[in-house]
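tool_call: predict_structure(chain=1)
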Amino acid sequence: MVSYIDAFMHATAWAMEKPAPYGTFHLTYTFVGLAVAILLAWFLRNLSDKGNRIFLTAVGVFLVICEAYKQLFHTYYIMDHTYAWWIFPFQLCSVPMYLCLIAPWLKKGKLQQAMYCFMMTYNLLGGAMAFIEPSGIVLEYWTLTLHAFTWHMSLIFIGIYLFLSGRGGVSKADFVLSTKLFGALCLIAFALNLALRRVSGGEVNNFYIGPTRSPLIIIKQISELCGWYVGTVLYIPAVILGAFLICLLLRRIARGINKEKELVAA
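tool_result:
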């Protein structure tokens, strides 16, 4: 079995020159991908609850397959059969892989609404930030670069879909629920960081909240000067603020769509 995995990973290790940030590859994928995401989300916005359940589950399975390839490629090809703990799959942008498989199967209620709003705001923010600051998604292999670009565009697509379908919710109560979920996920991430700190040599840094210093721009410099905990104390509210601004933007768009419908109806 291992030999087959090795053979497949080597066969798909297509080296490439890292795409330049805001170069042709980056900008083309960003704008084409965003257009496709918006159009597809609009087309699927009226899915029934059953259709939504099947669709989001399919998206979750797709993300699992993509993540499995990434994990195996790093382990069997890049790291030569050693696990790369720094890619442990519980980052902020990894969460939709789990939520897409869980949320649609829950009964309608606060927990499901929190998950939908979380993906619509926090994960849409994460996907967008990856394209705004693309250093983490421009890589040295075609498959990994396409994985990173497709993964983060998928987060944007999921967020837009949940917004247009009305499942995400843009009210203050919805955002509070999603933020409580974010807080709970931060606690889980930090607990995993501590639990895996020794075996990983400190490489695991889920959600980039420590105790390993964050690699994120600005927060990295703050952590180096003042300690990881200072960077974390600043980082978490910054993420909440960013998600809140996304929520406000979507609320404005929702009001505009509703006014347009009222004018058409009149």
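agent: The two ends are 65 Å apart (CA to CA). Proceeding to next step.
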